[in-house]
Design brief:
The protein is built from 1 helix and 4 strands; from the N terminus they run H-E-E-E-E. The protein is an alpha+beta fold and 132 residues long. It has a 4-stranded antiparallel beta sheet, covered by helices on one side. It is rod-shaped, with a radius of gyration of 23 Å.
Length: 132
């Protein structure tokens, strides 16, 4: 073979190698982003169910305008699913925090991604914190 043909083969191998490396990186980032979105969606679902429980009278099995004593089991939510695991903390009678820990690891820190959602019933507002 001539030198030109060998140069073209080497150049083609390098380009294919770079394309494969970029594809693998993008796939990993996509998996983390999808897991983050799924965990955030689950956290917001938990907030919605907690709102229902908060507003339901105690005579009907709800909180009677207080989060006191609320657990994930009370609102029919498991502490983990295929997206991650979840913890509910009662900060005050009208404030809760849900922390979702995803199954994917952050590409920058290597630790599991976490999503924190705080719900304030007094002014019906939600704050969202993503560790990435």
């Amino acid at each position: 073979m001539g030198q030109t043909q060998l140069l073209m083969i080497v150049l083609a191998v390098i380009i294919v190698g770079i394309a494969v490396a970029v594809g693998i990186t993008q796939f990993g980032e996509s998996a983390v982003a999808a897991n983050r979105d799924a965990v955030a969606g689950d956290c917001h679902l938990i907030v919605a169910k907690a709102q229902q429980w908060y507003r339901k009278p105690t005579s009907l099995g709800g909180g009677g305008n207080a989060f006191t004593g609320l657990t994930l089991a009370d609102i029919g939510v498991s502490s983990s699913n295929q997206n991650g695991s979840y913890a509910l903390t009662i900060d005050a009678a009208n404030q809760i925090t849900i922390v979702g820990t995803g199954n994917e690891s952050s590409p920058t820190t290597g630790s599991a991604l976490t999503v924190t959602v705080e719900y304030f019933a007094a002014n019906d507002s939600t704050s969202y914190l993503d560790d990435m």
